[in-house]
Write a structure and sequence with these properties.
The protein is built from 12 helices and 14 strands. It is α+β, with helices and mostly antiparallel strands. The protein folds into 3 domains: about 120 residues; about 80 residues, Arc Repressor Mutant, subunit A (Orthogonal Bundle); about 100 residues, no CATH class. The longest helix is centred in the first third of the chain and has 13 residues.
């Protein structure tokens, strides 16, 4: 954040203002993820007043209404006036913030602090480029696989139904997930009054093939532990062995959401039981079946070089009921 802070200080100096840094703020300790993941924060004195500076990590994924909502959440923790700092923002985005009287700065371009300084440059507005999606986020992948796995779902799935079915994922992340799927043309967002739905036009098999460049293995890393956490489903070779003629390894493999892993537990290199730490909670899709879902299983093993594994994976996908 030092670079962004220095840019801000230089810009304020060019406007005749000064800023004195006080301390960094850890939003993770005081705010929900919907806020803490969005900003880097610090306290600083500018224009003779201590303010909470909020450096946006990705303005392209923010809406003015979300910024306003974040102000309400932060106000429950901080009694300081807030100042949002964006590296870039569209004209429409800035005008919406101004209408809401939400202070913001875009270094070298725009400054809107109603109580002390307003400097708006029409020529400096820039269109915010759309973030190029190289791969789906973990939650977007879950929403996509959830649709493929549930053949009973209609082509248009209401947001509310997705949120209720994947209740372990907050509404904020489901909303971002469907936006990602729309951005890479796997689905479209439709509206019927105030109700929104995620609409899939292609068949499930066509969607699966189209999505391959964007889907990642759910496995972050492999560890060995003394005791497998309860309710962890079978994964990897063990899950494949359950549904094929493949022989399982001596020690079975299980899966666990990485955020649920107790980092204080001792891990081993050769002894202990095998545990895969996943980007998302495998239980969201396996629905207590005892093994991870077949699509996630395929993604976790598709880079395996063992011809027996590759053969059984191919057979599994050929027999998969789309």
């Amino acid at each position: 954040m030092n670079l962004e802070y220095n840019k801000l200080k230089q810009y304020l100096a060019s406007l005749g203002g000064d800023m004195t840094f006080q301390q960094d703020e850890s939003l993770e300790a005081t705010c929900p993820l919907s806020v803490s993941l969005r900003y880097d924060a610090a306290k600083a004195v500018l224009f003779d007043k201590t303010r909470l500076l909020l450096f946006s990590r990705d303005v392209a994924s923010l809406t003015p209404d979300q910024v306003q909502n974040h102000v309400h959440i932060l106000a429950e923790v901080y009694s300081l006036p807030m100042l949002f700092v964006f590296q870039e923002a569209s004209r429409e985005f800035c005008i919406s913030l101004i209408k809401k009287r939400l202070p913001f700065i875009i270094p070298k371009r725009q400054c809107y602090i109603p109580d002390v300084l307003i400097t708006l440059n029409e020529k400096a507005f820039r269109k915010v480029p759309k973030r190029k999606i190289e791969s789906l986020s973990p939650f977007a992948q879950v929403v996509f696989l959830y649709y493929l796995l549930h053949r009973e779902l209609p082509e248009s799935v209401p947001f509310k139904q997705i949120i209720n079915s994947l209740h372990a994922i907050s509404k904020v992340y489901v909303t971002r997930a469907v936006q990602e799927l729309s951005a890479i043309n796997l689905a479209t967002i439709t509206s019927n009054g105030r109700s929104k739905s995620l609409h899939f036009e292609s068949s499930r098999k066509e969607l699966w093939e189209k999505a391959q460049p964007y889907l990642r293995s759910p496995v972050i890393k492999h560890v060995r532990v003394e005791t497998i956490p309860s309710s962890s489903p079978l994964a990897g070779i063990s899950a494949l062995a359950e549904i094929s003629e493949l022989n399982d390894d001596t020690e079975q493999t299980y899966a666990l959401y990485s955020r649920d892993f107790d980092k204080s537990l001792p891990t081993f290199e050769f002894s202990g039981q095998k545990l895969e730490l996943w980007r998302y909670d495998p239980r969201l899709l396996c629905e207590n079946s005892g093994s991870v879902d077949k699509l996630s299983l395929y993604l976790s093993l598709k880079e395996e070089h063992d011809p027996r594994v590759k053969g059984e994976l191919s057979k599994m996908m050929e027999e998969f009921q789309w």
